[in-house]
Specification:
Layout lengths: L12 H15 L2 H21 L2 H9 L5 H9 L11 H28 L8 H29 L15 H21 L3 E2 L2 E2 L3
Helix pairs in contact: 1-7, 2-5, 2-6, 3-4, 5-6, 5-7, 6-7
């Protein structure tokens, strides 16, 4: 299926195979695998902190706890270490963090190896822009919504959302998937580490 501007959506099995092959080829290069791993850890940290800003400000940044206790409080915010998230929410956050890392690894590869020109547009450029929005959506969506609600005088709680603000992570997952696909589409016809991208 094509969009009005010629950008395709991943609707066929071949599209998903193209994404998988491109990601695998890029992440077999040690530098880009390290970039992706670091980006995933940083994004997971940003996600959990953004969902617990008051606690982090009161106990980790401020307050009188010793440094070891502050680090323990911070570690307890991560999925499967503490009790802040149920297993489904924890899996969702980790998947979004991994997708963010993969996306940033692909973006870094695309910029360094292909000299991506955003003004020329194309699928690769769309993937870069969408990936940035996706990572920002997951990290800051709940914070932005809280700010908007408080400006309108509405309760600053996200309890009315069934997943307590993790809906933004689901939205980010869709956006990041499209970004990865469009980055892979932008690399179609080329080679990565001597291997053709096309299947």
């Amino acid at each position: 299926m094509s969009t009005a501007r010629g950008l395709r959506l991943p609707t066929t099995r071949g599209d998903w195979r193209l994404m998988g092959r491109t990601v695998r080829l890029v992440l077999t290069l040690p530098f880009y695998a390290a970039v992706a791993a670091i980006a995933a850890v940083v994004s997971l940290t940003v996600f959990v902190v953004s969902l617990n800003v008051p606690l982090v400000l009161d106990l980790v940044v401020g307050g009188s706890l010793p440094i070891a206790s502050r680090l323990r409080v911070l570690a307890e915010l991560y999925p499967f270490i503490g009790t802040s998230f149920n297993p489904a929410q924890g899996v969702l956050l980790i998947v979004v963090a991994v997708f963010t890392g993969v996306d940033i690894g692909l973006v870094t590869y695309h910029f360094r190896e292909h000299g991506l020109d955003l003004q020329q547009g194309g699928a690769g450029a769309a993937g870069v822009i969408l990936g940035t929005l996706g990572a920002g959506c997951a990290a800051c969506g709940s914070a932005v919504l809280l700010g908007l609600l408080s400006l309108l005088g509405i309760s600053t709680s996200l309890l009315f959302l069934p997943l307590d603000g993790l809906e933004f992570a689901l939205l980010a997952l869709v956006v990041l998937t499209l970004s990865v696909y469009w980055l892979a589409e932008g690399m179609r016809g080329g080679e990565i580490n001597g291997c053709p991208v096309d299947i």
